[in-house]
Amino acid sequence: MPDRPRKRAAPTKQALARRPTDPAVLTNYGAFLHAQGDFTAAARILERIVPPAPARALVALTESYRQLGRTSDAQATLATAERLYPRDPAVSEIVEIYQRDATR
């Protein structure tokens, strides 16, 4: 990880060390890793969230699984997100992406 992202991750990693099961901390760090393109690490962190995970975590986990080629895990996670958060804009957006991709 280059220096700049590593420095940005430092406060979240410190929070994670203090509160390793906090859904907000896990979501923030997992979403950060996802945004950095570290899908394996993002999935590993986001999988630690005790259900029900926040919508943002489920979206990042779905996309991480997708990038890793874990299609069935991505579909199952997306179904959970859709069931739990049917009105969440990020969930709706990723559902639309998956539907559009399915018709290609």
Shape: globular
Alpha-carbon distance between the termini?
A: 34 Å
**Radius of gyration from CA coordinates:** 14 Å
Mind summarizing the main beta sheet?
none
The CATH class label is Mainly Alpha
Helix content: over 70%
How many domains make up the 3D coordinates? 1
* Category by helix and strand content: mainly alpha
Uncertain runs are none
Layout of helices and strands:
Layout: H1 3-18, H2 23-35, H3 39-46, H4 55-67, H5 71-84, H6 89-102
Structure description:
The chain has 104 residues and is mostly helical. It has one domain (3-102): Alpha Horseshoe (Serine Threonine Protein Phosphatase 5, Tetratricopeptide repeat). It is built from six helices and no strands. The protein starts with a helix and ends with a helix. The model has no long low-confidence stretch (mean pLDDT 91).
